[in-house]
């Protein structure tokens, strides 16, 4: 199979044109066609010679994202289930905020992390996406927004999969997204979320980027986290916290902790007290997430009054905390739900 053109950074394209005895400036033209003009074929790159277009067509392909399902929420959130070239499917979400449009992208087909409250892990991990397949999700979203003269203003890598288990592709995707000659997304407008893959938290800290880091924590201690997140048995709670302290010391940047509140499991006042003690010396923000109902799981949502009480305890202890604004609740916008339904229907 030919490589995807979106897998190539500007630097990769510069090397490619040199190897193919083309003038160096051609790389910039190709990059511009991909990310500024956002064409869908090499034939549309009209300022390139026919010979160069033929070479590109022979050696590369565009990522094909075929629209299987499109759901639009009352709040403006749009969720897509895209089919890939190998009959796998992934989800991408456009979320509209008063400060701009955010795109939630997927980095893997399925997920092997095994969080017990998440639909993404149903069916396990099928494969990693290439950098280009992640890039294509943002380009596709931007093309949709082009129709109303809007733009992608921020990216969250919080779709299905664990980005830090597909680390190299994720980092290449990020470098393409922030390039000033491409989509030029500001680094501080991008957030990558991990369940706590410790070696790559250290590695990410050493990248010295301005990209935001979020951690799916979901419990204040080792025992409960291992129950909810089997990955905690591989990378225990204390090791995750040590890596995050290293990240803060190295980067000086604040960390976001994502905490899904599950009725009667991790949402008691004593859990809030314990979490506040763990985070008391950290430059961080806690994002409380009322858990989405997943039919295959038995968890229920925390009652509204208990969510506010959990928030109050953290705030009183000096922890910066908010309750996530829900979006797309009426269209199964939680990670993996749409794909799980598709898998079930195709299996029949």
UniProtKB/TrEMBL annotation:
HAMAP family: RNA_methyltr_RlmN (MF_01849). It is found in: Cytoplasm. One of its GO terms (biological process) is tRNA methylation. It comes from the Bacteria. Residues 97-330 form the Radical SAM core domain. Signal peptide: none annotated. Reaction proceeds by a ping-pong mechanism involving intermediate methylation of a conserved cysteine residue. SUPFAM superfamilies: Radical SAM enzymes (SSF102114). This is Probable dual-specificity RNA methyltransferase RlmN. It comes from Paenibacillus bovis. [4Fe-4S] cluster binds at residues 111, 115, 118. The active site is at residues 91, 335. It catalyses: adenosine(2503) in 23S rRNA + 2 reduced [2Fe-2S]-[ferredoxin] + 2 S-adenosyl-L-methionine = 2-methyladenosine(2503) in 23S rRNA + 5'-deoxyadenosine + L-methionine + 2 oxidized [2Fe-2S]-[ferredoxin] + S-adenosyl-L-homocysteine; adenosine(37) in tRNA + 2 reduced [2Fe-2S]-[ferredoxin] + 2 S-adenosyl-L-methionine = 2-methyladenosine(37) in tRNA + 5'-deoxyadenosine + L-methionine + 2 oxidized [2Fe-2S]-[ferredoxin] + S-adenosyl-L-homocysteine. One of its GO terms (cellular component) is cytoplasm. Binds 1 [4Fe-4S] cluster. The cluster is coordinated with 3 cysteines and an exchangeable S-adenosyl-L-methionine. GO terms for molecular function: 4 iron, 4 sulfur cluster binding; metal ion binding; rRNA (adenine(2503)-C2-)-methyltransferase activity; rRNA binding; tRNA (adenine(37)-C2)-methyltransferase activity; tRNA binding. S-adenosyl-L-methionine binds at residues 161-162, 193, 216-218, 292. Pfam families: Radical_SAM, RlmN_N. Its EC number is 2.1.1.192. The keyword Ribosomal protein does not apply. The lineage of its organism: Bacteria, Bacillati, Bacillota, Bacilli, Bacillales. Its cofactor is [4Fe-4S] cluster. Keywords: 4Fe-4S, Cytoplasm, Disulfide bond, Iron, Iron-sulfur, Metal-binding, Methyltransferase, rRNA processing, S-adenosyl-L-methionine, Transferase, tRNA processing. Belongs to the radical SAM superfamily. RlmN family. Specifically methylates position 2 of adenine 2503 in 23S rRNA and position 2 of adenine 37 in tRNAs.
